[in-house]
Design brief:
single chain, alpha/beta, Rossmann fold, 2 domains, 7-stranded parallel beta sheet, 14 strands, DNA-binding, Superfamily II DNA and RNA helicase
DNA sequence: AAAAAAC
């Protein structure tokens, strides 16, 4: 289905064409007519599916109806980078449409606060905000949201995870009840249903949740001790021509050590987490998107929503605790029918998480163990769930994927949370 | 046992 088949104004179609969009994605096909019809929307959809365009296009189509100098659209998002990315898309689409917008978020130590205040008082058409900073402005009393006609909650499940529910309700208190509200969420847990019931009026629902990773992703799993991960990664990268890789780690304390270890091995890497300065975060992400360096080490600050063109690899340095986040993380690659590789390292503790991912994807994932052959010593063996669960359903030696050989004999002894007796620091295993 | 987000 093509965009000119929707009841959109010519100006909007020109703007869409200028962005080189031609065919509408499934979420756009479903959402655009419903949003144009004026109803509230409860949408289960992931990023990378054209979700942003699905709500921006019909909203931008109606912007000319609203008086200039008064904000008509408020978009709330969980992370600063997502706010910025959506703002860039509005700027792209809105260029010919005379729509003004601004991303409002915290962490900046420059003229940004004043710019934000100005845009809010002068009534930019579209405000894209993270909740905390917007509330800071709202409390100062100069924000006029009486003319808001559209409210979008993007990545709503993530915002709830982050404890933003109170902030969201607070912000909505400043917005007229007579409005069109669009709620987008990657998952539909009871909490989201509850929120939807509170803030949506007779919503249309669409469901495009892809709990399955895209076909084009080659998913690889490697059993590995923590101290084997860097040399294993170096080995896996040795024949790559020009990789563009995001390496996820669940802890921000791991970001810099990983960056340093990669640099030591002559790979250009940079790191992003909430500990980085905001301007640094923005510069690094921009440079990475422009392929200025091959490896970006990141926390889950980037696992949702962020679009990076032609990402060849996603590496999970550890297994995310929420199985859905696995799908989100690897969904950064193989976008738009491209191919991509997702590499996940599994240590002893992370094995139960892999099993949860297998349950979510409803299939066994093939685990490899190559540390022995590349001279790094034994990896942890893949083990069926320990007797902690209710029943010992699986008879020993049956059913579970099982790797025969030396791996089963000498397991590294990990009694506590952290290895206390490992190889000494800075001893490159060679 | 984590991450994100306001000052």
């Amino acid at each position: 289905m093509f965009f000119h088949e929707f009841a959109l104004h010519d100006d909007t179609l020109d703007a869409i064409e200028s962005m080189n969009f031609h065919e509408a994605t499934p979420v756009q096909q479903m959402a655009i007519p419903k949003i144009l019809s004026g109803t509230d929307l409860l949408a289960c959809a992931q990023t990378g599916t054209g979700k942003t365009g699905a709500y921006l296009i019909p909203i931008l189509d109606r912007i000319p109806e609203f008086p200039k100098g008064q904000t008509s659209t408020l978009i709330l998002v969980p992370t600063r980078e997502l706010a910025q990315q959506i703002d860039e898309q509005v700027q792209g689409l809105g260029y010919y449409l005379d729509a003004t917008s601004i991303a409002i978020y915290g962490g900046n130590k420059g003229p940004e606060w004043e710019q934000q205040r100005k845009a809010l008082t002068q009534g930019a058409d579209i405000i894209i905000a993270t909740p905390g900073r917007l509330i800071a402005h709202l409390q100062l009393g100069y924000v006029r949201f009486e003319q808001i006609r559209f409210v979008v909650l993007d990545e709503a499940d993530r915002m709830l995870d982050m404890g933003f529910i109170g902030d969201i309700m607070n912000i909505l208190h400043h917005v007229p009840d007579k409005r069109q509200t669009l709620l987008f969420s990657a998952t539909m847990p009871p909490k989201i249903r509850e929120l939807a019931k509170k803030i949506l009026h007779h919503p249309e629902e669409i469901n495009l949740a892809v709990s399955k990773p895209a076909e084009g992703i080659d998913q690889q799993f490697y059993l590995s001790r923590d101290d084997q991960k860097i040399p294993l990664l170096i080995h896996l990268m040795k024949d790559l021509e020009k990789p563009s890789m995001v390496l996820f780690t669940s802890r921000k304390s791991e970001v810099n050590p990983i960056v340093r270890a990669l640099r030591k091995m002559h790979w250009q890497a940079r790191g992003i987490s909430s500990d980085s300065e905001q301007t640094e975060r923005e510069n690094i992400l921009r440079d990475f998107k422009n392929h200025q360096f091959p490896i970006l080490v990141a926390t889950d600050v980037l696992s949702r929503g962020i679009d990076i063109d032609s990402l060849s690899h996603v590496v999970n340095f550890d297994v995310p605790r929420d199985p859905e986040d696995y799908v989100h993380r690897i969904g950064r690659t193989a976008r738009a029918a491209n191919k991509g590789t997702a590499i996940t390292f599994i240590n002893e503790q992370d094995q139960p998480r892999v099993m949860r991912i297998e349950r979510l994807l409803e299939r066994d994932l093939p685990k490899q163990s190559i540390t022995e052959e590349i001279g790094l010593g034994p990896a942890p063996a893949w083990a069926p769930p320990s007797g902690k669960s209710r029943h010992n359903q699986r008879p020993k030696g049956q059913g579970a994927p099982h790797k025969p050989g030396p791996n089963n004999e000498k397991k590294p002894k990990w009694h506590g949370k952290k290895k206390r007796s490992g190889p000494p620091k800075n001893s490159p295993t060679k």
